[in-house]
Structures are given as structure tokens and as C-alpha cells.
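Researcher: We plan to redesign the surface later, but first we want a full-length starting point. C-alpha cells attached.
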């Protein structure tokens, strides 16, 4: 399924880099394990984001266009992706996807085997893969969609991708919008800003194995319940905020001390350039109860330099 996955990734290859300023905790379904919300259009048109987007276009958009013939820079405006613990992953891509792009994705699917068109309330969606792998999508929210996936272009201006028929039908019922559960216990932490590029977060349970060792990185993850990330435009600079929700306030203080110690060790490292040293010295660490916050403001040119290296 490698060529087909490449085609789907053409729509979502920018996930680690770029968010519409609109996702709140109540917008996500109960049981959400991870989420990311991104807005390429906001990045293209903002003072800070435009420079990073130029790098992204050169490094990612061009390659995807050459490999699969899909121009995500022109056709994709934003996306939302999340995984629910009961139903697997959903990806909602917003943009004016051309009929040619839709046909290319379906053609990639057809090369792997028969495409199974299905109807739901007069709307068409497609299944490709092995029916036996659908249940695996429910059990592997970090690794699903590889062997069984549902795709639909029935909602104008959207591409809908899901791991189960129930997820797809729910999306079609809701006109391609995320159907959140409102305020609920255990909702994932969501950071927001007026001009955000990225909102992302996850439950960290299960990321480490108790037998993996006692290194400090594993201990931090093991004693963290949630993590959230925000990237945004702040007066022409790129603001980055990360928050960790620890198991208890003492653990949050301990993790904060470790991070502060690492910053102090690197702040005067002669092997680092002056821009990196300044960035490290201006990184702010705050602990409030169980929540550890890390904040920094970065010059877009420095971000591009780091990405290019």
C-alpha cells in the first residue's frame, strides 16, 4: 500500500509543521488520544508564518507534487486530525481539491486492489484495504490507516479520511465537521491563540514501557499525563508554547528543575551560535500546580535556518 499511503500523505504531509485558530477541548470527541489542527492558509498569509511556509513549499510541497502530482500548496487550506480510543484516526482536509486530485488518489488506491465504493444517505465513500484490518484501526490509534482506510469527497471543499465505516458515516452526517462531545472529564489540554499555526496534543499513557529503563527522558514521559503544543504569530515572531500535565505538583516542579538545568548548561555553550544561545536564555519555564509551561518567541529566520540545517 506504499504508493497509496503516499497519496494520502500528500494531503497531510505537513502535520508536524503547521492550525486554524479554532480548536477547543470541547470540539474533540471523548476518548481522544491525540489531535492536531493546522492552517496552511494562515501560515501563508501571516508575517511570521510566510517565511516558514516558503521553506515548507521548497522542501515538501515540491516533492509531493513531483512524486504524486498533487499540489497541496494550492489545494489544501487546513486540516484537523485526531484519534479516538474506540474508533481510530480521522483526518479532515479543507480545501478546493480538484476532481483531478480526487481521481489521482482513487487511482493510487486502485493500483493496490479493488476499490469498494459505498453509499450512505445518498453520499459516496470508498473503502480500500482488507476488511480484517478494520478492527486493528480501533486498537492502534498511532499506526492505523495503513492497511484499511475509508475516503470520501462527498462534502464540498473537503477530503474525509477515517479508519472505520462508523467514523466516516458520522463525518458525512455532520457535513465533514468534527463532532465534539463538549466539556467532559479527561478532555485533552488544548492551547490556543488568535493567530495560531499549530495546535497539537496527546495523552502520554503507554508511550513508555516500564522495562525501557530509568533514563530521565523515560521518567518524564512516564510521569506526564498529557502534553500540548501551540505555534502562533506574535507581532511578527513565532511564539511556541508547550505544556505538560504531570501526575502531581511535585513531579511538575521536578521536571521544571530538570528543564531549567538543561537550559543553564546550554546557554553558554560555545559550540552554539549566538542566536541559539539567545533563544535558550529567553526560554521561560513556569510551574503552576501540575502544569509545566515552556514558552519561547523565535525569529522566523532562525526557525528557517534550524529547519534547513
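Model: Full-length starting sequence:
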Amino acid at each position: 500500500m506504499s504508493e497509496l499511503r503516499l497519496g494520502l500523505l500528500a494531503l497531510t504531509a505537513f502535520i508536524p509543521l503547521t492550525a486554524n485558530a479554532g480548536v477547543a477541548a470541547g470540539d474533540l470527541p471523548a476518548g481522544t488520544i491525540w489531535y492536531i489542527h493546522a492552517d496552511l492558509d494562515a501560515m501563508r498569509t501571516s508575517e511570521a508564518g510566510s517565511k516558514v511556509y516558503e521553506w515548507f513549499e521548497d522542501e515538501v510541497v515540491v516533492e509531493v507534487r513531483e512524486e504524486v502530482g498533487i499540489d497541496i500548496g494550492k489545494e489544501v487550506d487546513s486540516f484537523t486530525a485526531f484519534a479516538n480510543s474506540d474508533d481510530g484516526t480521522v483526518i479532515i482536509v479543507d480545501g478546493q481539491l480538484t476532481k483531478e486530485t480526487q481521481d489521482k488518489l482513487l487511482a493510487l488506491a486502485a493500483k493496490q486492489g479493488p476499490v469498494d465504493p459505498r453509499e450512505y444517505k445518498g453520499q459516496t465513500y470508498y473503502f480500500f484495504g482488507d476488511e480484517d484490518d478494520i478492527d486493528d484501526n480501533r486498537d492502534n490509534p498511532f499506526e492505523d490507516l495503513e492497511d484499511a482506510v475509508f475516503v470520501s469527497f462527498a462534502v464540498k471543499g473537503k477530503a474525509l479520511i477515517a479508519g472505520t465505516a462508523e467514523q466516516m458515516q458520522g463525518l458525512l452526517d455532520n457535513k465533514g465537521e468534527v463532532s465534539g462531545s463538549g466539556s467532559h472529564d479527561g478532555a485533552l489540554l488544548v492551547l490556543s491563540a488568535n493567530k495560531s499555526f499549530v495546535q497539537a496534543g496527546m495523552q502520554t499513557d503507554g508511550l513508555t514501557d516500564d522495562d525501557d529503563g530509568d533514563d530521565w527522558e523515560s521518567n518524564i514521559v512516564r510521569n506526564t499525563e498529557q502534553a500540548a503544543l501551540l505555534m502562533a504569530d506574535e507581532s511578527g515572531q513565532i511564539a511556541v508554547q508547550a505544556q505538560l500535565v504531570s501526575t502531581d505538583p511535585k513531579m511538575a516542579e521536578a521536571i521544571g528543575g530538570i528543564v531549567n538545568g538543561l537550559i543553564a548548561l546550554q546557554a553558554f555553550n560555545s559550540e552554539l551560535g549566538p542566536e541559539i544561545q539567545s533563544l535558550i536564555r529567553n526560554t521561560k519555564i513556569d510551574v503552576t500546580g501540575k502544569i509545566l509551561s515552556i514558552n519561547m518567541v523565535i525569529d522566523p529566520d532562525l526557525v528557517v535556518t534550524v529547519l534547513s540545517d
